[in-house]
Automatic annotation (TrEMBL):
PANTHER family: CARBOXYPEPTIDASE Q, PROTEASE FAMILY M28 PLASMA GLUTAMATE CARBOXYPEPTIDASE-RELATED. It holds the Pfam family Peptidase_M28. Homodimer. The monomeric form is inactive while the homodimer is active. SUPFAM superfamilies: Zn-dependent exopeptidases. This is Carboxypeptidase Q. It is found in: Endoplasmic reticulum; Golgi apparatus; Lysosome; Secreted. GO terms for cellular component: extracellular region; lysosome. One of its GO terms (molecular function) is metal ion binding. GO terms for biological process: proteolysis. It comes from Holdemania massiliensis.
Length: 413
């Protein structure tokens, strides 16, 4: 008996971090689901960086804080590095000057701009935090973060992550000196993309690629992000198995998206010759929220946004449509000049959770999942049934700049 969309989401709803056996298990489950639909799938392996954290600590004269090390960050001697503590509230000229020679606590996500400010300031180490102040100790997990390649190119500072509660305690303690110890061993792991293809009936040489990542972050069952997108892709595959498309549809369930779109980058890097035939990318990332709204973010000529808006209006769908970079697997394709639309159903604040232990089925529903599935399916049918492909294969210059900024090829002004 065919597994329903909701049943498949339940089946893959376990923690499946990049490069782990659990991610491989999820990939195999998706391959089995493809075969149950009557199609064939293959796994394409690619290598990802990994680390074995040998030693990590963060301590002041009064307090020892529980922390995790940034994977791939700089290392310290066995005894650690001791330096003055500084809380950088905002990365401006004054705070950069004051951060010199210090171990610095920063606010927010450690993006390229913030890390560059730390390196240029002469900081000797950094501390970040995650969570919400209202979290209880029992429901707080300290995320294991990594210093991604583009940041590491600026220089590898030793860094750790702590809970937001400990960050508040550290600021209130305001110690003169603080000691970080970070020691790790670099390793390699294997991730994989799951790939299936349905040949087009009348225009097989024109390819539409459909993507959704299936990995999760640690501690998270990742049903909203992005088990939901993965099972939507499976539903689309079943439909087009039953109703052969005019154009070739290539389905890619991407691994290791949560670590910087590694699966879609790996596909693009290893299929350079195949990219010429790809006319469009449809990406699905987050769906199923009971309370939320559906969105479509476009990368491509101005006509694309107008086309999606017209589609929604004609279908009577309230759809938020904009031309913008979405942090997901469409980016590597559009970076190669391939137009894309990312569909998502954003959960409302307080009614849905992402990248933590609260991303669970309780806040999703089969009806909401089916609603987004239908939106994506009908748009895809419209593309596929067009006599002439309706969207020119190009990315405007202003969007190219945004993609370059997102990929840290250039700095955001």
């Amino acid at each position: 008996m065919k597994t329903t969309q909701w049943e498949l989401l339940q089946k893959i709803g376990f923690v499946r971090v990049s490069g782990t056996q659990q991610e491989k298990q999820a990939a195999e489950l998706l391959r089995e689901a493809v075969e149950a639909c009557g199609e064939k799938a293959r796994l394409e392996m690619f290598e990802v960086a990994d680390q074995s954290i040998e030693k990590v600590s963060c301590a002041t004269e009064k307090t020892s804080y529980t922390v995790t090390a940034y994977g791939g960050c700089g290392e310290t001697e066995d005894s650690g590095i001791t330096a003055p503590f500084y809380y950088m509230e905002y990365p401006g000229a004054v705070s950069q000057q004051q951060a010199s020679g210090k171990i610095v606590l920063v606010n927010g996500y450690l993006n390229y701009k913030l890390y560059k400010a730390l390196v240029e300031s002469g900081a000797v180490g950094f501390i970040t935090y995650n969570g919400e102040a209202r979290d209880s100790a029992e429901t707080t997990d300290i995320a294991h973060r990594e210093l991604r390649d583009k940041l590491a190119e600026l220089g590898r500072l030793p860094g750790v992550n702590m809970t937001i509660q400990d960050a508040m305690r550290l600021v209130q303690e305001n110690p003169k000196m603080i000691t970080l110890v970070v020691q790790q061993k670099p390793l390699k792991a294997v991730s994989q993309n799951v790939i299936a293809e349905i040949q087009g009936l009348t225009r097989p040489e024109e390819v539409i690629v459909l993507t959704a990542h299936y990995d999760s972050v640690e501690y998270s069952t990742g049903v909203y992000d992005n088990g939901a997108g993965s099972v939507i892709l499976m539903e689309l595959l079943q439909h087009f198995h039953d109703h052969q498309p005019n154009r070739t549809l290539r389905f890619i369930w991407c691994g290791s998206e949560e670590r910087g779109l590694l699966g879609s980058h790996a596909y693009v890097d290893t299929h350079e010759d195949d990219l010429k035939a790809i006319r469009f990318n449809v990406n699905v990332d987050v769906a199923g929220a009971v309370l939320g709204h559906d969105s479509a973010w476009c990368l491509g000529p101005i006509e694309l946004e107008a086309m999606v808006k017209t589609y929604a209006a004609q279908a009577g769908i309230q759809l938020e449509v904009k031309s913008e970079v979405y942090s997901s697997d469409e980016v590597p394709f559009s970076d190669q000049g391939i137009p894309s639309v990312s569909f998502m159903r954003f959960g409302e604040r307080g009614a849905n959770y992402i990248h933590n232990r609260h991303d669970v089925l309780d806040y999703l529903s089969a009806d909401s999942l089916a609603k987004t599935t239908q939106i994506v399916l009908n748009f895809l049918k419209q593309l596929d049934q067009s006599v002439v492909f309706p969207i020119e294969r190009k990315i405007p210059e202003d969007q190219k700049k945004k993609i370059d900024e997102y990929l840290n090829k250039t700095e955001k002004k």
